[in-house]
Specification:
The complex is a heterodimer of chains A (285) and B (131).
Chain A: H1 3-25, H2 29-36, H3 38-43, H4 45-53, H5 56-76, H6 90-123, E1 129-133, H7 145-167, H8 174-196, H9 204-209, H10 211-226, H11 229-239, H12 246-265
Chain B: E1 2-6, H1 13-27, E2 35-36, H2 39-45, H3 50-62, E3 66-68, E4 74-76, H4 80-105, H5 110-129
Antiparallel strand pairs in B: 2-4, 3-4
The chains are: A mainly alpha (285), B mainly alpha (131).
């Protein structure tokens, strides 16, 4: 398999996380303040405009994306010596480099997000008048039944395949069953996480994004529940067929993560008048 | 259908929630069997502590307006509007008793109080008929 496939997948992830998501995220600065306190928002237009026109975070993200892609490209073209493990195959070097750039970038992003919310909490008091809908929210309002049925069916088929292959003697042995336990535990853990999504406490993001956030989260949770299929398939192909699926499996995982981020990228702030949730944003904004 | 709270109001926030839900039940906007949001949802949307909303729900439950059916959720009870009317009547009765006791304490006679009430009702009557 060409190294360029690995490069393309990693570059897509970097562009998505450090270019498209921050660009999209800029639209939420003003609605977030307006949601927290519309009176403060109206009284401090100068501060809001300054925040809205600020580009430093966006530029830092762009630079980080450019540096990350340039280094990956340099390694792919043999212009840069592999930083870790010169003896490792190129795809593995790209994988490790991508992981390192993502980790550092996301830590920086997390720190900036934390600072933003600290600033918000310190400078923008909560609104005195608050509104909320008296209509309860349930998962079935956001996610169609076929989606949920498909996820449950694939999960059961996946675990069933492990049991059948083990029972047929194709993949017996302690290592095989240890793999099964690992996959089953991962499936249960992700199912628990996915079940918590519709019940989680709503926050400003629900008011800013409206129904779309919960829908995107539930779709992402469905994808998360299907994630064990990738390591499950990798382990079966490795233990039963003697293949080395590490590279393909990793690329598939990254592609699934890209799909999850793409779901979030569709989110747009709802107009205050159409928000079904609480919101100070409807009062004066 | 919405609920609005004002955190700076002298009326406690949980009482504002109770009053508004009762008003919607009395007006028929919240029909018997209608599901209400969970404590967590309402608290999150109103940016309030969960205990505040839980206290309001508890009071509504104690008054027989709503019914919490475990994981199924919280619903408006079948006879909720009758309960709300009963609550309103008993609150009015309590207010009148307090007022009468206060006026008697001021030294007014029963006849004088009766006249005052009649006068007040005469003044208030046109207001009541106004839609």
């Amino acid at each position: 398999m060409s190294t360029w496939i690995d490069f393309a997948v990693y570059a897509t992830l970097i562009v998505l996380i450090f270019v498209l998501l921050p660009r999209n995220g800029r639209h939420f600065t003003v609605p977030t303040i307006a949601d927290r306190n519309p009176q403060w928002f109206a009284a401090h237009r100068d501060v809001v405009e300054r925040l809205e026109s600020s580009r430093w975070f966006l530029h830092v993200c762009y630079v980080w994306a450019a540096v990350s892609i340039a280094v990956l490209l340099g390694v792919a073209l043999d212009l840069i010596a592999p930083p870790f493990g010169a003896m490792a195959p190129k795809w593995e070097v790209l994988k490790d480099l991508n992981g390192a750039f993502l980790l550092i970038g996301l830590l920086g992003w997390g720190a900036c997000t934390l600072l933003w919310f600290r600033w918000l909490g310190a400078h923008v008091p909560l609104a005195e008048t608050r509104r909320a809908s008296l209509k309860p929210r349930v998962a079935s309002d956001y996610l169609a039944l076929p989606w949920r049925v498909a996820v449950e069916t694939l999960t059961v088929l996946h675990l069933g395949a492990w049991v059948v292959i083990g029972a047929m003697g194709l993949g017996g042995g302690a290592r095989y069953w240890a793999g099964f336990v690992f996959i089953a535990a991962m499936t249960i853990l992700f199912a628990v996480i996915a079940a918590a999504v519709p019940r989680r406490r709503p926050g400003f993001a629900d008011r800013v994004f409206g129904d779309g956030l919960r829908r995107a989260e539930l779709e992402a949770a469905c994808l998360l529940r299907l994630m064990p299929l990738i390591p499950g398939g990798m382990l079966i192909s490795e233990q039963v067929y003697g293949l080395d699926p590490d590279r393909v499996g990793h690329l598939l995982l990254v592609s699934a993560i890209i799909a999850m981020f793409l779901l979030l990228l569709r989110l747009r702030p709802v107009s205050p008048s159409s928000s079904p949730f609480g919101a100070g944003s409807r009062i004066n904004a | 259908m919405e609920i609005t709270v004002l955190t700076t109001s002298p009326e406690p926030v949980y009482e504002q929630i109770v009053r508004q839900i009762q008003d919607r039940v009395a007006s028929g906007e919240l029909a018997p069997g209608t599901a209400l949001p969970t404590v967590r949802q309402l608290a999150g949307d109103l940016q309030l502590n969960r205990n505040t909303v839980a206290r309001a729900y508890k009071q509504l439950e104690d008054r027989g307006v709503i019914l919490t059916a475990g994981r199924k959720g919280t619903f408006v009870r079948d006879n909720a509007s009758r309960e709300v009317e009963r609550i309103k009547s008993s609150r009015a009765e309590r207010s009148v008793r307090h007022l009468v006791a206060a006026l008697l304490g001021e030294g007014l006679s029963r006849a004088e109080i009766q006249t005052l009430f009649n006068d007040a009702l005469r003044v208030a009557r046109p207001k009541e008929t106004t839609p």
